[in-house]
Amino acid sequence: MQHKRLLFSLLLGILLSVGSCKKPDTSAGEAQAASAQVSERVVNIRTQTIKTSVFEEKLTLTGEVEAWKKATVSSELSGKLQWLGLVEGNVVGQGSVVARINGQVLAAQRDQAQANVQLSKAQEAWQRRTQNKQVALAETNYGNSAVNFQRQQKLLQEQVVSKQAFDNAENALQNSRLQLDIQQVSRNSTAEINRLQSIAASASLRLAQVSLTKTAVTSPISGFINKVYVEAGEYLNPGTPIADLVQINQVKVNAGVPERDIAKVKLGNLVNVSFDAYPDQIFTGPVIFIGAAADSANKTFPVKVRLSNPDLRLRPGMLAHVSLVKERIESTLVIPLDAVIEQEKGRIVFVAEKGKALRREIETGPKSGTMVQVLKGLKAGEQLVVFGQRSLIGGEKVRVTTGR
Question: Tell me, which fold does domain 60-70+246-329 have in CATH?
């Protein structure tokens, strides 16, 4: 019995030894088969010829649309709002009459001022005639006194008249001269007073006319009526807001540029701006303002971009995506960002050469949209795999196709 058990154990050990010796041979065969399968595998890919081109490193910012001009319509006068011609959403032209203040009192004041001007002119003419007559009479009296004085002087020399008669003639001459001077001075003074009164009356008339003109409230700018604050019939005080206007035939886009990039932004630089409301259109305009100081809240420098808006599609408050060119390189290698595969040790791409996929480690520069600059690892003219690259490990046979 023990002999049989020993024989059974020996046979079992031999069988196990034979089985363990055959396992390595099977694994090696499977590995060789897998390697052969990879080498024989053909991957469909699409390629793109690597070329040098202009590369623009861009800075993308978030901005907001601001009206080109904003203005508040208000009255310079106090009074009842007699008529209002403003409707929210409508467009008005610069200088258009948009409201009227009741001007009955001002019209009466204008008429009174006109009457005062006419009265002043009439008084001036009457006083001028009167003064001229008085001066003429004084001149006549002075002339007569002069003739009488000369006669009395001659008669005194001939001892025909007394010294008293001569003295009386001399006194009469002096008095007539004095009266002539007084009348001339009075005429000149009256003329000056009348001139000043006429100026004052004319000024009062112009003031009344200007005040009456201001009852017609005009638009300070051309633009949209964004908000109306009052209604016809209300009483307004000077400066009371009537409506807000915005001019948007061109607009400003406000954005904040970080300190590290502000030195690369120049006045006149063209900027691309896009909007969520118009995803298929790019708007372009120049930088028109660069802030001298950073915003204290977010530490960015304010920048303004002017955009033409003839169809009035861009509205104040709209969110804008601003793309500024930080740096422009005239000739460098640029490839699609999707062709690059991120790995722990770096970035790789695949190129197709002689029907096989070759793995390349690359060093990249800045990104710009869907493109990235290549600093090392590729050269112009190579065929970059842009589709199917994530199915490759390197060394496979590849077939270049034109579709998916």
Answer: Elongation Factor Tu (Ef-tu); domain 3 (2.40.30)
